[in-house]
Design goal:
The protein is an alpha+beta fold and about 425 residues long. It is built from 5 helices and 24 strands. The chain has helices at about 1-20, 150, 185-200, 260-275, 315-335, and strands at about 35-40, 45-50, 55-65, 70-75, 80, 95, 100-105, 105-110, 115-125, 145, 170-175, 210, 215-220, 245-250, 285, 295-300, 300, 350, 355-360, 365-370, 375-385, 385-390, 395-405, 410-415. It has a 6-stranded mixed beta sheet, with helices on both faces. Strands 1, 3, 6, 7 and 9 form a 5-stranded antiparallel beta sheet that branches. It has a 4-stranded antiparallel beta sheet with strand order 2-8-4-5, with no helix packed on it. The chain is elongated, with a radius of gyration of 26 Å. The chain starts with a helix and ends with a strand. Residues about 1-30 and about 340-345 have low confidence and may be disordered.
Amino acid sequence: MSLHFHRFHFFTKLFLCLFFILSGVQISFGQTSHVQTQEFKFTGNFYKILDRSGDFDALVLRFEGIFPEDAQVVDSHGNKYPVTRDEHQESYLQSNLILFPDHQTGFSMTGLREGIKGKAYFIKVPEFTLPESYKGRSSACTEPTVVPQSVWRAGLNPPTPGRKATPTRHCIVHHSASSNADTNSVKLVRAFYIQHTEVNGWDDIGYNYLIGHDGTIFAGRDPEKPGIEQDNVFGAHFCGKNSYTMGVCVIGNFQEEAPDPRAVDALEHLLSWKMFKDRMNPLDSLHHPDTVSGPLLPVLAGHRNGCSTECPGQFLFDMIPQLRIDIRDNLVECNKMDVSRPDQPNILIYPNPSGDEITITTPHLVDFAILNINGKIIKQGNSDQYRKVSINSLPAGVYFVHISDNRQRWIRKLIVSR
């Protein structure tokens, strides 16, 4: 009985494998497959119909030879979706993800030239509801509420192991280029994850964080190991130059439309916390280690600052200069309230960054010295409880303030911006 059963099971699996291979459908018995594929050639009004077991929630199209700039997808209700190129996929002529408002069993396309060939990737996104507890807010100085992978990835395959860490010198802002009509952020994040892993073949989702239209922040690429922090995971998002970067994707297409203010507020909060934590200057520009001989890259940059792309969309890109200023102002306030170092609870230097003068507050008389990154003393003196120190003669850059009394010495990082 057992031998007959195993033979039946083997031949059933073999038959299913042959059937799916001949029909152009990919399936894996090692993990749950959320993607089916179908090759096509445009010979008129191409139309693909799946049976009920093949219902799908999202679609990605891959083309051979040329990307059709004017193509549109039409769903079963007659709704039209522009087919835009995925600029994060450098190996193929591939569309951005198209997420449908409900389950689909087929679609049609317009705007294709006769003879265009390609492959359609039909993505099934398992249903999931995000708990309300992940939509809270805190001050700009503290880590924002983030939906962890263990929550939003429920029911999906785990990423491929092998993560590594990288320090952050640049924060890179992206947009997903998905339709702004898609407001189910958690479904979009789950769909992006399936696209990145099962369509693109990546180890994991590419970004460190993703931000929904309502400001919900999702943890992106999985650190995997206890010693790697979420904001320092080596990602896959920035023109092949992912070292020393943190990637944040604001969900939506902002080439011709501005993002929701709640998403911008969440982006400002996340970046303020990150730059306060790592003592980064949002107004500064540095050489990326992979392009030392090239132009400087802003510490807070858009994807298009690093390569030829429209990402993060014109409207969001135009907001970045103001974001830098707002984050700088947040850092000034964060430095005033900085109690993160128990050995320095009553010594404050603000504003920081600054370009004119700083105030050093201490509970008693101390000596101070401002040193450049080479250890040379640039300015020194002593300070009573409220002492203003002019720094308008210092070139922009990073300095260290050594503060000491008869018993202890403290060191604070100072950023001079112009």
